[in-house]
Amino acid sequence: MGLNILKRKYIGEIFLSKKYINREQLQEALEESVKQGKKIGQVLLSKGYISEDMLFECLSLSMGVEYLDLKSINVSKDILNILPEKYARKFLSVPFKVDADIVWVAMADPTNFVYREELSKITGKKISVVLSSEKEILSFIEKFYVRTSLSSEIDEKEVEEVDTAGKIYEENIDVSEDNDSAPVIKYVNSIFFDAVTNKASDIHLEPFEREISLRMRIDGLLQTMTPPSKKYYSAIVSRIKIMSELDIAERRLPQDGKCRVRVANQIVDVRVSIIPTIWGEKIVLRILAKNLFGLDIERVGFSAKELENFKEAINAPYGMILITGPTSSGKTTTIYSALGTINRSDLNIMTAEDPVEYEMKGINQVHVRTDIGLSFANILRSFMRQDPDVILVGEIRDTETAQIAIQSALTGHLVFSTLHTNDTISTISRMSFMGIEAYLLADAVNMIIAQRLVRVICNNCKQELNNVPESIYNRLGIEKNKKFYVGKGCSFCGGTGYKGRIAVFEMLNVTKEIRTCIADKASEVELRKLAKEQGLITLRQNAVNKLLEGVTTLDEVFNVISIVDR
């Protein structure tokens, strides 16, 4: 890499010359770029016309500089000392190589000559630049400037001060701008930053005899991250307790709390759970960021027909809608997307939840507290005196709650709730086993939805799967000429081959015929046969459809099938 002189070329023409897009797509992107005030590359990326690798390849050619994947770079503390962290964040620029009078810097915008001149003044050296993505630069800062400082170079006095600090409640802590904070505070903030930018749902901090484990659940799977040194763990625990208004002196009993942080102008609620283990306190942080994970009913995963049916059901004046599935199958997201869709000023919407996962404007949410007698059943009784139109019962766990919920649905209220059942038909049997009379169940329930989550193939590294055994087609019951796809793994998806998750559904509309069947106490076999005759698409079929559409992989589909075929 020598010193580079930037030579700009029109990026749209580069996309065309590479045959990544056609003229019509370019014109469409240009028009949207002007309307939305976005760069043309970002418009093309959002439309799925190009991948992230294609974008940076063409940006590199347009700017006349090399593109560098920072994930493959390791740097020493001496190189980091060339450019202080606050300037790295300010200019979105990080040093990765130094010679006698030259420092090589990765920049999100290498064409910004003002930034380049400032960097030259700060470092006292000539600047040679390469292009990197903003996301990779921020991750580099968190990994090297923040994480390495806590694993090796913390002042013991600073650790002690954090560990013995008093109880301070800090609302909306901004984890993106903490350049002057103590190292332990910066480290904790960096964990939140990583979790939110990687769209993790949970953070696990676990102490063991000789080390600490740090893992994040991304797209449903726990992934190991770089952990802190064990000798600073008590300080990290104390910082999290302070943020969550927990007792920093209590280390023998479990504690639960919550805090709220700000990441890149995004407010994120965090649910905190701490339990004592033989080697110290384990912490699990649940990230509740509704506009990061998306509560848009259009993006949950419904097909066009399913979405039409669901919207019709949630706009009914009364009746019950049940969402079923195991833990972490996306039930909460589906219900919140429904509530967000129907939430308006002429409806009184009330929820009983354990716990309240997302705070929603205009909706009255009540947190279940069984330790003081505030159970689902007791809350529902109180709701009946609050003139509700729509009620959410977080989960039907017992006969009393089920009976009150059914009665509410029969007396003019729209009721949403969840159950842990395998499919739609078995949900009817479960409610019967809980003591609900068949004729009441038949009259009350409008719709039952069973769902699972499958991981989505990364569009950046998606490729056709070859040499699929004939036995796979036979097991799935599909034609042998159908194509399957996988993600080979890239920097965009962290090498997993997947990016994000989507729900697959089994949606049972309780029609007049099915109501009659339920009231007559028909068996599950009879109900399932009738439902299929009326067009029921099972979880198994829905998962296979997602496979044939190229949305997910064989492995993900067989995870669904292995459960529903039991």
How do the strands of the widest beta sheet line up side by side?
4-8-9-10-5-6-7
CATH top level of the largest domain is: Alpha Beta
Strand content: 15-25%
The biggest beta sheet, please? 7 strands, mixed
Low-confidence sequence ranges: 1-7, 149-171
Label the CATH architecture of the largest domain. 3-Layer(aba) Sandwich
Q: Shape from CA axes?
A: globular
CATH homologous superfamily grouping of the largest domain = P-loop containing nucleotide triphosphate hydrolases
* pLDDT averaged residue by residue: 85
Structural class: alpha/beta
Helical coverage, percent range: 25-40%
The whole-angstrom Rg is: 27 Å
Continuous helix count? 23
Instruction: Please indicate the count of domains.
Output: 3
- Measured between the Cα atoms of the first and last residue, the distance is 59 Å
CATH fold name of the largest domain: Rossmann fold
Please give the number of β-strands.
19
How is this structure best summarized?
The protein has 566 residues and is of the alpha/beta class. It is built from 23 helices and 19 strands. It has three domains: 11-132, GMP Synthetase, Chain A, domain 3; 154-289, 2-Layer Sandwich (Beta-Lactamase), CATH 3.30.450; 294-452 and 504-539, P-loop containing nucleotide triphosphate hydrolases (Rossmann fold).
